[in-house]
Amino acid sequence: MKKIDNYLETLQCEETSNMTFHVDSPHGKKKKVLRAQYPTEDNHIDIIRKRLMIDFDGVIHDYTDGWNDGKITGGLIPGSAEAIEILRQDYEIVIFTTRAAPPEEEEGQSNTEQVKAVSDWLKQQGVYFDKITGEKLGAIAYIDDKGIRFEGNWKYVLDKINEIQNTREGSNTV
To answer: Quick check: 71 and 120 in contact, CB under 8 A?
Structure first.
């Protein structure tokens, strides 16, 4: 564990926020990953206390047409723009979406077009945001349509997954 900590500390100290480095993917391919810029130790807690992470698909965008080859064709979920407008007064609003993460199937494919499409859609709908990311950042809360709140035990989590699975497919269990 000490070697990993030293390696990560070295990366964090030596790299700038715009550098990329290669990591092994679970599929045995090397992937380029943009290194996130992390806050300094002295302002880290304040940033986390002032940030909300809000999922895009299913929370702001209704996602009625599903992925649809990456095209954003659905509408705005009623009340989302107004709620975010209220929240932005006290919080940094970070939209998180897997659309901002590089696709797994094609190494090196850029996510720039997807991030631009999400940004353009949000602006057209009048939805305020500070950032768009595909990465889980420190935050006071995560607003996500597919999240399961951990209630202190894994039985609860397994029950919730079974409930979701049963609703979608019938009677499969975990």
So the answer is: no
Q: DSSP 3-state assignment of 29?
A: coil
Phi-psi domain of 28 (left: phi exceeds 0; alpha: psi -120 through 50; beta: other): left
Question: How many angstroms separate the Cα of 173 from the Cα of each of 82, 109, 149, 155?
Answer: 39, 36, 19, 13
**Phi, psi torsion values for 72, nearest 5 degrees:** -95, 100
Q: What are the structure tokens assigned to 27, written together?
A: 């599929």
Alpha-carbon distance of 165 to 174, in angstroms, equals: 9
Domains along the chain with CATH numbers: 1-38 (no CATH), 39-143 (3.40.50.1000)
What is the distance between the alpha carbons of residues 124 and 174, in angstroms, rounded to a whole number?
41
Q: In this predicted model, what pLDDT tens digit does every residue of 36-88 receive, in sequence order? A: 444 455 555 565 669 999 999 999 999 999 888 888 999 999 999 999 999 99
Q: Which two tokens stand for residue 145?
A: 């349509």
3-state secondary structure of 131: strand
63 phi-psi bin (left φ>0, alpha ψ -120 to 50, beta other):
left
